[in-house]
Design goal:
The chain has 563 residues and is an alpha/beta fold. The protein contains 21 helices and 13 strands.
Length: 563
């Protein structure tokens, strides 16, 4: 039950002439101090309407409504404070969680609509760095949140697998490369060849001519060029997928830039047919002045296409293939203007899904306040960070729980989970100054803290294995349980809000709040005391374990049963 709606419906008969139920609902507040009730209606918003003092309006309202379903309803100055019936409320919420299990909070608002998510998108033959982490884990979490809201997400790793750099790489490999080295460590060696090319071409500019020739061969379908390109791509993908496996991230498609090569001429033709292309200083552009945007450059003066040409082709392909309910691009905030242009061009072209194209920007990852950059040498390899996190988790677990079964598996879940959670607990537009030690702490607002709360709940349930947990939740009168029960009741709303703003941090912050509330409850209550309410307390513990695990899952983080 939506108890906020219940409060609104209770007030509605007394306010039917002045406010709709929806208006009442919007005005209802949640007091931070629970001694002032679970919900509050501010009567001062009606002072002008009723031409009365707010205190009098509140006093009048309490006389006109049915308060029998509440523990009590009090007038406190201009507020009408509603205190829920704790026993009935807890029985209902715990019953819903235990009956629905991992499906608690699931809704079907998306009606199974397809939602392509453009995410991660590393460049072939280059390492996946910490700079790729945010797009990958934000996109993955949004996919899970979409599923929870009834959509069908399609995770698309739009690889950077085309461009003039492949002419350089083919040239470098043929001159200095070794097949065995590439198979052994593809990314390290392909990068080494690429770097060597750029050093050598300073004194040997003819290398650039060779590279241009090889890329032209690749574009023209030359067998050797294409074979080498495909090999570089396959070897790179093997290395990438080893990292994605550690992160627990899977993709539905890897249609990279190369996939759209044969689809760009159709874009140019359509733009021409619709009269959208204009010449500007020899180049071809789409005028976007009516959107207060600069012209979108579609073709350079030499006829070469640009990223936007390819992205238009991509959007059209996704439209025709998936008929998307939404089309999402999880790309850094520095590209915000570009995506405004892309959306405007697609709107001008009449693409149906253009109105539901959303760029989901995010802030930078920095280390010691400094931006990561490949050119300046400030690059931190994601694979190495994941390994460090797992090693650090292993050390902590060995100290805390040396007899833990499956220590290595748990260390991986904790170490990798700490990095993912450490990213997603931040509002995505905020920049993050990465600190591995802070993210791996078992205390504070961290992934391990939430995971440990879940493991603690599971430990209690194992100790109480002789007691059947009632699926109807049962009534719990323990006052210490109240904040935890209310937090459990909030989860379905969090699922909806997180999607509305494309904000995984809503889920992460909720998980921290629920974990804190449960830990406080655990510290102040004798959960396993043999009395009449023991089954109800265990129902609460089981519900917390279920919702913490599901919250972590929506973030792409695993929840060990023991730590």
């Amino acid at each position: 039950m939506d108890y906020k709606q219940f409060v609104a419906d209770t007030l509605a008969p007394a306010l039917t002439d002045v406010l709709s139920v929806e208006d009442i609902y919007q005005k209802i507040e949640r007091p931070k101090d629970t001694s002032k009730g679970d919900y509050a209606f501010p009567a001062f918003t009606l002072a002008k309407t009723f031409k009365k003092a707010p205190q009098q309006i509140a006093a009048d309202l309490v006389e006109q409504i049915d308060t029998s379903k509440f523990e009590k309803v009090e007038v406190a100055g201009p507020y009408l404070n509603f205190f829920l019936d704790k026993a009935a409320f807890s029985a209902q919420i715990l019953g819903e969680v235990l009956t629905q299990g991992a499906d608690y909070g699931q809704n079907q608002a998306g009606n199974n609509g397809n939602v392509p998510i453009d995410m991660s998108s590393p460049n072939i033959a280059k390492p996946i760095s910490m700079g790729h982490l945010r797009s990958t884990v934000i996109g993955n979490s949004i996919a899970e949140i979409l599923k929870k809201n009834g959509y069908n997400p399609i995770k698309d790793n739009h690889l950077g697998d085309w461009g003039t750099q492949f002419g350089k790489l083919i040239t470098a490999y043929l001159k200095w490369g070794n097949e065995e080295d590439v198979k052994k460590d593809p990314i390290t060696n392909l990068v080494k060849y690429y770097v060597k090319f750029h050093k050598e071409d300073v004194e040997h500019p003819e290398l650039d001519d060779e590279a241009r020739e090889w890329f032209k061969k690749l574009e023209d379908g030359d067998e050797q060029a294409h074979q080498l390109w495909a090999w570089f791509r396959d070897e790179s993908l093997k290395a990438f997928n080893a990292i994605y496996d550690k992160l627990g991230v899977k993709f539905d498609t890897y249609n990279g830039e190369a996939f759209y090569n044969d689809k760009m001429q159709a874009v140019i033709d359509e733009l021409k047919d619709k009269g959208l292309l204009q010449e500007s200083q020899g180049a071809q552009v789409v005028d976007l002045s009516k959107y207060d945007l600069n012209p979108a450059l579609i073709l350079k003066s030499d006829g070469a296409s640009l990223y936007i040409t390819r992205d238009i082709a991509t959007a059209i392909y996704r439209e025709n293939t998936y008929h998307p309910a939404m089309n999402l691009y999880v790309v850094g905030s520095e590209q915000m203007y570009y995506f405004k242009q892309l959306k405007a061009v697609l709107t001008e072209m009449g693409l149906p899904s253009a109105k539901n194209l959303h760029h989901i920007p995010f802030g930078l990852i920095t280390v010691d306040g400094k931006k990561l950059s490949t050119r300046s040498g400030r690059i931190i390899l994601l694979d190495a960070v994941l390994d460090d996190a797992i090693a650090m988790a292993q050390k902590q677990i060995a100290e805390k729980n040396p007899d833990l079964p499956n220590k290595d598996q748990v260390a991986k879940q904790v170490g990798v989970g700490a990095i993912i959670f450490g990213d997603l607990k931040n509002e995505r537009m905020n920049s993050i100054d990465f600190n591995l030690e802070e993210q791996l702490k078992f205390e504070g607002e961290t992934g391990p803290y939430v995971q440990y709360a879940h493991a603690r709940a599971e430990s209690i349930l194992r100790k109480a294995s002789d007691v059947t947990v009632p699926t109807d939740g049962a009534k719990i009168s323990d006052p210490e349980a109240w904040e935890t029960v209310k937090a459990l009741a909030d989860f379905p709303d969090i699922v909806v809000e997180a999607l509305k703003e494309f904000e995984p941090s809503d889920v992460a912050k909720y998980a921290i709040r629920l974990a804190k509330s449960f830990n406080k409850y655990y510290a102040h209550s004798k959960i396993l005391a043999d009395d009449a309410e023991k089954p109800a307390r265990l129902a609460l513990v089981k519900s917390v374990s279920t919702v913490l695990k599901e919250s972590l899952r929506l973030l792409g983080v695993q929840a060990p049963d023991e730590m």
